[in-house]
User: What shape does this take?
Amino acid sequence: MINKNNISTYIRFLYKMKNGGEAPEQLIHKWSSLQENEIHSNLSQLYTHWNFSADKIKETESLFAQSFIKPVSSPPAFIPSPVKAAPAAVKTTATTPKKSFVWPLMLLLIAGMLCCLVYLGYQYYQFQKMHTIYTLTQNVSIRDEQGKTIGNFALLPNSQSKTYTELIALNNDIYPLSIDSSSKKYDFRKVLFQKTGFLSFIKKDYEYGFVNANYVIEDKEQFDEYKRIFGKFQGIDNSRFKLSQRKIIYEILKNSKKFRNSYLLSSCKNSNKKFAGFLSNEIVENTRYQIIAKLEDGYYYSFVGDLNSEAYSEPERIQLDGSDCNADFLFRYLSSESGFKIYNCNGALQNIKCIYDDDKMISSFETEEAPEPDYIQPIFDSIGDAINDIVN
Assistant: This one.
């Protein structure tokens, strides 16, 4: 319905509907200069930004069509004048009856119609299998059939181009796909970037890609809950969260009576990739984690969970600085020997030491006396920077 011929009028319509005024000509010029495929991609992102549902999109475009798109009237059909036929001459001689081919032709026609109905019925059954899917983490690559990245699938919108928080699964099938020069193949799901009509589905007139099946869910309620928990923890820190770490925090908050409605806050609104707004202590590789992060009440809490045993502990409030429990801190892992270092929002190193228990968990923090100036320290800091960049 919306194409390059009417996009300018449609943007004026949307702008007036949303803002109550006339759209700037510069904005109209940008939209009118887009190609056909770019128009649909940018409209999809605009709808997502405005939280337009599928029904809201359909209603808006239908209202636009009724108001601005005039139907093409067809010319009146030609009706020929009746011609009086001359009376047929009556034959008196007997004729031999001819063999009729009507029934065989009718049977062929009926058989052809039945085949078409069976084909359309099967295609409609496949069409009905399409459904919306989601992901619970950031930066899941959308790939083409050659394994090349063509987009980004994410829990939350980010600054990357062609980022989608919802995709349409074409079916429930698994598609083995190689993503590099090796022969190893991974399980992928085939996805569409936006909903398509039945006719386009039959003609395969749609854009599609593939996403790793391990990062796909179909539970809208779980997706919304992850968005609520991590929605205010945006930016570079949100991208650092592994799916396993998100799952531990989600399971802990979900099963806690006291913290059931809590959510994370980002420390210092961090945008520096050298630091993290949360502390992730990997106790057992890819299995058991301790995450220390700030909740909406302004305090830091320790989240401990084991993915194999599915054992999750109640959030435990942990104090970093006795003088101000609500202060913001940034964290940085330097090495196995140096461990974690703690900084303020300006990047200044704090004299706070992590205290570990026998299970390798951080049980508390202690304030140390300020050390004597060490002129070799900048050297170790630069080494730590390099290690931190590799780890992150």
About this structure: Confidence is low (pLDDT under 50) at residues 76-85, 374-380, 386-392.
